[in-house]
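Work package 3, deliverable 3.1, input record:
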Amino acid sequence: MMAEEFEPKIVAFLCKWCSSAGSDLAGVSRMEYPPNVVPIQVMCSGSVSPLYILSAFKKGADGVLVSGCHPGDCHYIKGNFYARRRIALVKELLEFIGLDPERFQMSWVSAAEGVKYTQIIKDFVNVLKPMGPQTKLRRSQ
Amino acid sequence: MTKKTGVFVCHCGINIKGTVDVEKVAEKLAKHKGVEHAEDYVYMCSDPGQNKIIEAIKEKGLDSVVVACCSPTLHETTFRNAAKDAGINEFQCEIANIREQCSWVHKDKEKATEKAIKMSKSAVERVQQNESLEPISIPITRRAMVIGGGIAGIQAALDIANSGYEVVLVERSPSIGGHMIQLSETFPTLDCSQCILTPKMVEVSKHPKIKLMNYSEVQEVSGYVGNFKVKILKKPTYVDPEKCTLCDECTKVCPVVVPDEFNFGLTGRRAIYIPFPQAIPATFTLDIKACPGLLPIACGKCADVCEPNAIDYDMKPEIIEEEVGTIVVATGYDLYEKENLAEYGYGKYPDVLDGLQFERLLSASGPTQGKIMRPSDHKEPKEVVFIQCAGSRDPELHCAYCSKICCMYTAKHAMLYKHHVHDGQAYIFYIDIRSGGKGYEEFVQRAVEEDDVLYLRGKVSKIFEEKGKIKVWGVDTLTGKDIEIDADMVVLATAMRPSVGAEELAKKLKIAMDKDGFLAEAHPKLRPVESVTSGMFLAGAAQAPKDIPEVVAQASGAAAKAIAILSQERLFHSPNVAEVNLKLCTGCGMCVDVCPYEAISLKDGKAEVNKVLCESCGTCQATCLRAAISVKNLTPTQVHDMIEASLGG
């Protein structure tokens, strides 16, 4: 009997102004992507604390995505620059504690980029599938 | 304390129900902690749907509501108002976006249902911890700014000013008028463009409520809807408009000739110049880039002959600060850059022109007084080839979009050419003819029937010069025959692009652009004149290619939106602002440094938030090491619980 294919769980923090709107556009345009991702709308990618990312991994996420406006286009002027710097550090931290940094991604998706959002989710799921479940930070059930 | 939350799952006809098992979502949610009531209904946004929410709140004593439906950009306000009608605070209502972000993007019903359940639970977790809030009321600066003095900006400024509000109209070039003032006649009536625009320009210059700032550029914008602060750079013209009598003596002595922008380089102008005779404001401008130097020792001829002493070499750039409540952006378009269309010999052969250059040739006030002649040898062209979609509708090499107005102006060009050169022949290469608009189709037919314009369906493959002629090779895809025309002149219907500098300005204004660089509207169907940034509106070709009647309509629409803000005494600001926990705050000041709005300051060793300036971005919340600052109704505790629910916990 073939084992059921592993379906990674992804939490996506989408900023309200660009990425969430881009994800809405993907919906309006009826594009299709895997249902592995559950979005959480935040005001700005700059409001995503490293603790949210660790909390998601701890609560069982196999992958975490943070998506904001393109650099320079932040609705809040410079929030995504803070996000970008913070994310680089979080990647290093994850690597340091032995969690594959590929499990955590940041992307820039504008309100016009429904296609891009769709592709990012598809690619991310493809990256995560062969990696199997994330167990490093998952708290014991 | 656990609240009593009601969950309402919308079918949206089959839009949600088709992929999500809505009954199962309601059933599962009913069992979730804190959920007192859950039901599904075919259209939650309909009146009966809203009544279900209101009744459930009243009957079951609910204190909070989650509606699982379409994107919050659509019906959040509807449901928050319904909650308010039922007597609970509007911030006790949250939306789970299970349509755009779930049912519309997935096919597997089981998995989509599972995801919809997680999203709805996440919204429940959030609303369970929402505070009841009241909007913050702020006063409004009751004047407007319009950026761009083309027909869009002129119309918007006049509409706002005629409603009794002051308008600051900012134009970067020496005169208002934009591209419309450069046109010869306008389709489909063949009205003279200058004749219909100049009265409006004069009205702008005489209007007591309009402050015209020509030769000025927006440098910096701060603030928020109702209260923007704009810094404007007023470039020196070196001519005092009050003293200048337009005698034109200065241009006679100016030794410098540079290509004339107004005529797209078809003629030259002096370093001191007036762009065109009806320029508003009516004054000369000294182009400092072309001028040999401001010191009398370098030249100084213009100042010598200026009797009224209007020329002032000591004029300096000024920064002027204006306070306005709302901004209309009408920055217009430019044509696709010449270097991109080398295949048509554009920029290489002098007799290959773009549409705007041809307008200048046709114009009675143009460099040839309306006589059609080849720029190379001043001969009258007998065979003219017009090429549509030059740079448009070509996703591989150029712009993917349709520039919309070219079909019509090319028909007009061919028609007007025939009116000037009776024995000439006009050919038009086209992909499709798009003549939607009042009287437009009839206009194209008139060009074909009355003026014998020959339409050739196909693309041009090559253009080259041979023996004084411009050889045009193409294919007529209707007959399948190769076409070779020995043309005297080629006119390209070049693609429209957002105006040069629009991107930089959009960044200053913090308004979004679409993939082509045009300014993005808040909703493509229902909010076409609003930008994503509250209080800023869009008018004209800055938003997308469009013709004059559409521009005027959109400008009036943008003006109406601006007036709707200005007519209020006070505005309401979102109360979801950052809040400091004084017990935890150590006064380290990191939040003060990162706040993009300078909304946080230190007072008595603790952070303090200015509620009016705070825009709820949450950057402070992610920065604070002690979790001492958080944005109301999206606090870290709420987010952690939402993460848990999103992962199926």
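The first strand of chain B starts at residue 5 and ends at 10.
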